[in-house]
Amino acid sequence: MATPIPFEWVVYRMKQRGNQPTHNAVCSQPEWDAMEVADPGHHTLIREHIMNEGEAERLARDLQTPPPVPKQVRSSFAAARRSAIQQPMSTTTAAN
User: Helix (H, G, I), strand (E, B), or coil: what is residue 33?
Assistant: First the structure.
C-alpha cells in the first residue's frame, strides 16, 4: 500500500469586484501554484507551506477582517446627543 503524499496548504485573499469585501480562502499548494500560473498576481498570498488543513482554516478565519459598519447606522444615544448639541439652549432663568 502506497503512503499518501502529504499536502501543504495555502491561505490567500481573494480579489473581489467593486465594493464587495474581500475574503480569505484556503487551497492546497499545488492548486495555488496552478492558479498563479493561470493568472499571476490575481489573488494575494497570505501564507504558504502550512502542513495542516485545520491550521490553514483557522488562520484564514482569524485574519478575516470584519466588514465596515455603514455610516447610516448610528446608535440612538449618539443621534440624541447630536440633536441636543445642535439645539440652542433656552435662556430662561429661575427666579430667586
Answer: helix
Q: Inform me whether the pLDDT recorded for 74 exceeds 60.
A: no
Strand partners, 44: 13
CA distances from 28 to 5, 57, 94 (A): 12, 11, 76
Going from the C-alpha of 9 to that of each of 15, 16, 38, 51, 58, the distances in angstroms are 19, 22, 18, 6, 12
- What 3 state SS string does 71-87 have? CCCCCHHHHHHHHHHHC
pTM of the model as a whole: 0.60
Counting residues of the chain whose pLDDT is more than 90, the rounded percentage is 43
